[in-house]
Each structure stands twice: as C-alpha cells, then as structure tokens.
Amino acid sequence: MLWVLVFVGIALLGLVGLVAYVVWLWHKVQDLLSEVDHLGRQAEEILSLLDEITPLPAGGPVGRPGEVPDPYGERVPSGQADLEFEPDFAGFSARHATHRY
Known about the structure:
Layout: H1 2-52, E1 67-69, E2 75-77, H2 94-98
Antiparallel strand pairs: 1-2
C-alpha cells in the first residue's frame, strides 16, 4: 500500500511542476506579445515620420550640368581635384610618433 502513496505523491509533484511550467510559459507569451505590440507601435511611428519627409526634386541638386555641390559651400567641377593640396601635420613628426609618454 505504501507504493500507491509514493506514486500519488510523484503524480502530485508532477502536476505542481506542470502547473508552474504553464504559468511560466504564459508569462513568457505575455512578454512576447507585449514586445510585438511595442514593435508595431514603433513601426507606425517610423512610417508616420517617413510620410513627413519631403522628397528631393527630380532634377537633383541645383547647379550647372557637370558640377557637384561642395559640402563647404563652394562649387567644384566634377572630375577635377585640387592637386596642390597639402595636409597640415602640425605637431606630428617621427620623434613624437615613437616617443612614449
């Protein structure tokens, strides 16, 4: 008769474990659904912000053909480069590069 009580006890522990697992799984599903809802709201916000963006004119940047606007305000003809440019390396020399501070 003792073995029946042992099996009933094991069954009850298994049932308690199963209920605890179902509750844990339900919380995880609720968290997942909450994140999906949040993602949907963010997607709606992004789409509404994208609707507010005005497209560029079809002709591209204003200027003469063959010219590319310079980000610094000057117009530079495309295909040309400033070959006279020399970078300013003030304060950098071989002595400074190998010196340990």
